[in-house]
Amino acid sequence: MLSHMRALLFQRPTTPSISCSPTPVPENNNVSCTCTANVGQPAGSLRWLSGSKNNFITNSPLLTGDSPLVLTRQLTRGDHDVTQFRCDVLWSSEIKSSDSYTADVGYPPSGVTLRINSSQTNQDVVVLEHGAVTFTCSATGGNPAADVTLSGPGLQSTPVTSQVPHVVPDVQCGDSGSYRCTARNKFGPEQVASATLYVKCKPHFSSTRLPPIRFTGKAPSVVFNVTAYPGPTDSLTFGFLGSSAENSAPQTDYKGIEFGSSCQAVSNRVNLFTCVVTVYSIIPAVVGFYQVTASNPVGSTALVIEILLQDPETSDQNNGITSSSASGVTLGLGGVLALVVVISVVFFVWVWKRRWILPCADLHSINNSKRVQYEAKRSTDQNFEVTVTQSSLPRAPEGPYESLDMSEVAQRSIYSEISPDVAKA
Question: Taking Cα atoms as reference points, which of 166, 170, 169 lies closest to residue 180?
């Protein structure tokens, strides 16, 4: 019984445990650490100590109290992986200590560099086409470690490892341009370093055949792009191929045509140039195919262009076909509509006139040059015969024929009249 009571009055403490959050804590923000333990019987106490690795200041505790005991402190970038916290249980003459917490502070990378081949960092480099090029990105600082990417004309945001070279074994003319190393993590703005790669190469055309130039007396032009470094040093040169684009021996002493050409660098592109060829005059004898050559100190490249001589009126017709087609359709429809109206009017007039002529359909015969006779025989008396001459008939009364300017027709229109006496007989 006595031993049981002593066990209740005396109980040794347990080793404390701690937990801290967040991890990592953004720089200049607070970290919160909680210490828990059974402080024993009679009850002991807890204390928080701070210091560096294996060097705690025991005579100046940060905080004392009962379990659980919470410690809150602001951390800076300088505390990262240096400052430590520890929790102790004080019981009688015994001290039981927890594991140490080492400050984990999150912050962005402080810098990044780019080196091309063996050049100095962030320095522009000139190389020859088809050679190997090495890019090395190096990021400094940052917790957690920064994600590093390399981007440029020949690369599309390629992830790389800091300080590990990235090799392009066969660099092309189109790979010229600005390259960037970017380092970033979740705790701040990204860091960027850049350098320009110049790949020396002879001119390259986007196509070996350009659309034809149709000369109409208005100085037509054709525009195309050239990839080269350095750019075309002189104006483009021209050679006359004649009527065949396959001619391998262009003439350079031709006469009868006046050319103009120029090449301008495209903004933000060190190796891209826009060239313009203009024809100011030409005679039929030199119409045909021409070889256009672009040159720089590395080499030269040629393409073929056809120049045609076109009648200005034909050109205007071709150029205006779109706008005139609508007018042509409108005029055509208007003409058809007018024709339909005219035909309809003529038809109705003809029908109207025919209505006035129809009463004359009872005439047996009309003869303008001879005397007209009408004979009528009665079915009951074969010997009875009535002869009527034109002179014996009364003149047709004036009627609608006169108003219709058809008096001549009216005069020729003779109606058969049978007198009442004849009818009675």
Answer: 166
Q: Quote the domain boundaries for residue 229.
A: 206-315
Considering the domain architecture, whether residues 83 and 123 belong to the same structural domain is answered as no
CB 127 within 8 A of CB 171: yes
**Rounded CA Rg of the chain:** 56
Are 149 and 193 within 8 A, CB to CB? no
Q: Is residue 149 part of a domain?
A: yes
Q: Are residues 236 and 287 in the same domain?
A: yes
- The answer to pTM > 0.90 is no
Say if residues 98 and 86 touch (Cβ distance below 8 Å).
Answer: yes
61-84 pLDDT, tens digit per residue, is: 778 888 899 999 999 999 999 999
Provide the 8-state DSSP code for 51: E
The upper half-sphere exposure of residue 384, i.e. CA atoms within 13 Å in the direction of its Cβ, equals 10
Tokens of 308: 């045609």
Question: Both 115 and 98 in a single domain?
Answer: no
Give 151's strand partners. 180
Instruction: State how many domains the chain has.
Output: 4
Residue 425 to residue 299: CA distance in whole angstroms: 128
- Give domain status of residue 327, yes or no: no
Residue 60 sits in the same domain as residue 145: no
How many other C-beta atoms lie within 10 A of the C-beta of residue 227? 22
CA distances from 104 to 20, 33, 144, 262, 341 (A): 10, 12, 10, 62, 97
Are 79 and 148 contained in the same domain?
Answer: no
Same domain? 308 vs 221? yes
Contact status, residue 119 vs residue 125, Cβ threshold 8 Å: yes
Residue with tokens 């001459």: 389
Q: Tell me the C-alpha distance between 47 and 60, whole Å.
A: 10
**3 state DSSP class of 92:** coil
CB contact set of 71 (below 8 Å; sequence gap of 6+): 32, 33, 34, 35, 48, 62, 63, 85, 87
Q: Are residues 233 and 170 in the same domain?
A: no
Is 18 found in the same domain as 86? yes
- The beta-strand segments (E) located in 40-104 are 45-52, 55-56, 63-65, 69-75, 84-91, 94-97, 101-102
Domain end among 259, 281, 315: 315
Q: Tokens 């919470």 sit at which residue?
A: 70
Domain stops at, among 169, 200, 231: 200
Are 250 and 239 within 8 A, CB to CB? yes
Residue 324: inside a domain? no
pLDDT tens for each residue of 361-415: 444 444 444 443 434 444 444 443 434 444 444 454 444 444 444 444 444 444 4
